[in-house]
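How a chain folds remains the central question behind the approach discussed here. The record that follows shows the chain in one-letter code together with its fold in token form:
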Amino acid sequence: MQRGEHAPSCAGTSPQNGAAGSAPRHMTPCVCHCAACRAAGHGNKCVVLRMGLLRLFDNQADVVDLVLRHYHGGASGWDMAGFEKPVVSMQYGPAGDVIAAGDSSGRIHLICTQTGAKFFCLEGHSDFVRCVQFSTDAKQLVSGSDDKTVRLWDVGSGKQLKQFFGHSAPINDVRFSSDDTMLVSCSGHPHDNDNSVRLWDVETGKELKKLEGHSKDNKDCTCEFYHWGKKANPACSVQGHSGRVFACEFAPDAKTIVSGSEDETLKIWNVASGTCQATLEGHSEYVICLQFNPTNPRQLVSGSADKTIRLWDVDSGKELKKLEGHSEYVTCLQFNPTNPRQLVSGSADKTIRLWDVDSGKELKKLEGHSAQINGVRFSLDGTMLASCSGGYRQDDNSVRLWDVGS
């Protein structure tokens, strides 16, 4: 986005008390024919190539909705500019044709990956959207925010379907189980007493279990789980960490959950019993991000404020490998879905790095963002990479697409 240009505002109501809201107005339509764009419907738009920049214009308002810049270097890609606020979370849709990007104002933007056009702006959250994830069929999206709510959205209409109440602190992470029947969320804040992980039942909306034991300075440090339903109460809550819980995820079989915390540990939880099966120790600062290996659920990876990435054996609890290279804390990471020997990470050092998991060697460093990296995600085929960036007093409020397959 150039000086003097501005992105259009989002329209739509903010649903209250979990009720479904009105669909937001359509944003810039795409010139492609992806499923997301067909679902949204478009009109009165044109694409203009001017001075090497692909601009999408609204014919009626003559407003530049966004600018796509092509980058060359370590990898090539598109910069999806046009965000008024820092982009703090991001997720690829399963088919790779749409990206959900949450910003610091509480909005969630749905973007076509083929053209960079925003086709929906989801409104309802009132603060930073820290996490977003699509269901496996891409029909629904779940989000977590600093407004202490978890929300479920219908991707096709842009309507809010449900709010999940229970956390009393900002939501740091939220994930679907592999079969989309459960949801796990975690929270924590230095000045709040809810440092928890919660499990929700998708069908009934009831709290399944509360995992006891998280506590710090008499604060409740728990993990909660949710199921979908008309009422969205925690299905269970898991405690055991002695600090804020920053990340959580189901194992591929949905029988176990891993959580990462301010207390510098990862904990493995049994979903059925709610008991902690193992504590993984090795990081020297708080654990910020984590993921199970999608093809080997007995392995997981974690990123930390100690600037390292560590690979773990779930059964033994042993650290298998330590990846070093980032000069600031590691904020996000993901295994390549088609090649789990490859890993991508993002950091507060403003770089994205590709790693060979087996050797522990850095394969490539991607540079271009001018603020910390808040999210990195591979496309389903592993050839494209999306990243988002932005921060306090930092001007880079963008989502970028990188070609990492060439």
Residues 299 and 313 are 5 Å apart (CA to CA). The radius of gyration is 20 Å.
